[in-house]
Each structure stands twice: as structure tokens, then as C-alpha cells.
Amino acid sequence: FFFSSRRRHTRCSGVSWARRCVQETGENIMANPLQKLCGICACVSVVTFITLLVTSFSSLEYNDFGLDYSWITKSVGEKPFTNGIHFLGVGHHFLRFPKTVQTLEFMNTKDTSLDKAIVSRTEDGLEVQLEISFQYVLNVAVSYTHLTLPTIYSVQISVVAASL
After folding, report:
1. Dihedrals φ, ψ of 131, to 5°?
2. Residue 84 backbone phi and psi in degrees, to 5
3. Closest CA to 71 of 157, 12, 148
4. Residue 124 and residue 73: Cα distance in Å, rounded?
5. Which candidate, 139, 132, 154, places its Cα nearest to that of 99?
6. Count helices and strands in the chain by DSSP H and E runs
7. Closest CA to 55 of 80, 83, 89, 86
8. pLDDT at position 35, please?
9. Closest to 75 (Cα-Cα) out of 54, 55, 89
10. What is d(CA 128, CA 122) in angstroms, rounded to the nearest whole number?
11. Which of helix, strand or coil describes residue 131?
């Protein structure tokens, strides 16, 4: 049986079986500390390489397109990427933008959002409140290198719309 209660007697059995086996065979695996150090360095190198390789890939959803952003050089690539898994390299990630129609509204609502009605004055000094709603789609074929953060592009569009 595999889990037999009887103890098998071999030439390396006993309390200090490992020490006895090393002494009898004359092999000492850890005799050279340089070998141990090289083994540890090799293991750390393999784990580091695999980690860097895995983190070099990034994916985009079906309704997104992205620009390659390097946090090392703080630059944005000009080529837009569509949905799928892409190899970008170490220190790169996607700035994600929606491909779908986005709606931007400037209306007075009970909700305390950032998009409130645009308040202006006429030449006579009368107050005018404009409630505007428009939709836009970002074109994938256009270069968006001036849009540095994906959360700010809607704010930039809001500022431009409010200044009109």
C-alpha cells in the first residue's frame, strides 16, 4: 500500500536522511553559494520578465478607441487603436475614448450636475439663459494628440460650447 504504516528501510532512511544521503553520495547541492545565488537571480529574472511581458498588453472594448500613452516620456501616439488586445510595451497604456454618440446638455435641472444652463446678458443688460443640448461623435481618423486625458475632453468641449 502507498500509505502503509510499516516503515521501509533504505540506505537513506532515518531522522537525518538528507544529511546521510549527501554524505554517502558525496553530492552537496548547496555546496557552492555562487550556484545558489545564480539560481535565485535566474528565478527573479524569469518572474520579472513574465510580469513585464504580461503588463505590456492592453485591451479595448468594442465601443472604444484608444491612443497609446507612454507614462515614461509623457507622450501620446498619433495612431488610434480600435477594439481588441494590443501589445503596447512597458510603461504604456490606452487613453480610452468612446466611439458612440455622446450627448452634452446645458439645462437647468434639479440635479446638481456640472452641466447647467448657460447664463449670458444682452446688449441691454437683460439676463438670458440658454438651454442647449447637442450630440457629437469623435472621429477615429482624426489626430487627437491634443487631448491628453480622456476625462477632460468632454470638459474641453463644454468650455468651447459655453464660450460661443
Report:
1. -105, 115
2. 130, -175
3. 148
4. 52
5. 139
6. 3, 9
7. 89
8. 83
9. 89
10. 7
11. coil
Q: Residues with Cβ < 8 Å from 70, sequence gap 6 or more?
A: 76, 77, 89, 91, 92
Question: What's the length of the chain?
Answer: 164
Q: What are the φ/ψ torsions at residue 66 (nearest 5 degrees)?
A: -140, 160
CB 88 within 8 A of CB 72: no
In the numeric block, which cell numbers belong to residue 59?
485591451
Which residue has cell 510595451? 89
- Residue 103: name the closest of 130, 134, 132, 131 by CA: 134
Neighbours of 76 (CB within 10 A): 17
Residue 71 corresponds to which cell in the numbers above? 507614462
Nearest alpha carbon to residue 146 among 67, 71, 81, 89: 67
CA angle 48/66/61 to nearest 5° reads 85
Tens-place pLDDT, residues 6-20: 555 555 555 465 566
Report pLDDT digits (tens) over 62-87.
Answer: 888 888 888 888 888 888 888 889 99
User: CA dihedral defined by 57, 61, 62, 68, rounded to 10 degrees?
Assistant: -50
How far is residue 59's CA from residue 126's CA, in Å, rounded to a whole number?
Answer: 52
- The CA distance from 45 to 41, in Å, is 6
